[in-house]
Amino acid sequence: MKRVAVLISGRGSNLQSLIDAAGDSYRIILVVSNVEGAGGLQKAQRSGIAIAVIPHAGKTREAFDAEVDAALRAAGAELVVLAGFMRILSDGFVRGWEGKLINIHPSLLPAYKGTKVHERVIEAKEALSGASVHFVVPELDAGPVIAQASVKVAPSDTPQSLAERVLAVEHRLYPEALKLLASDKVRLENGLALFR
Length: 196
Ligand code: GRF
Fold this sequence. Notes:
The protein is an alpha/beta fold. The chain has helices spanning 13-21, 39-46, 61-74, 91-96, 117-123, 159-182, and strands at residues 2-8, 26-33, 50-53, 79-82, 101-105, 128-135, 145-152, 186-189, 192-195.
């Protein structure tokens, strides 16, 4: 049973899906938010999970990341899951959690890295979009993909309607990907997500 910490900045709907699916291979022992009052903090507390609020304002990236790292180590986290965490992590932090740190991104990576994904997908008249769970590497949204799921883009889609459908898929995909990692069925090796 792996001890998992989840980093959030917002409503925490992915966090909730990870809480709901915990049991066999992992349990969530800490939720860290850089935003005070983030909706996900209440979700954690409702499930009796410890929370930590670590504001980033007025700190260097390295100082903020060091505080987060210290909280994760103190809690005995073995895996770190980013779920709507809206901060770029420093290379040092990412290297310190190499192979133990994953993120979910609402596109079919390597397509549409970064922000405003759904707007850009619709603008480009893509037929498909989706969600990707990937190992985090220093380059943004560039780490090896562990799992992906696609949804069709309808001509009538707005960024909001597409975001909702992708989010529903995220909620199914993220726990599955975390279980793979927590049960050592996938690992990061030589820049690849290696399955066994
Ligand atoms: C999700 O769309 C996720 O892919 C992106 O941020 C959003 C977080 O939503 N990284 P929530 O806070 O989990 O509801």
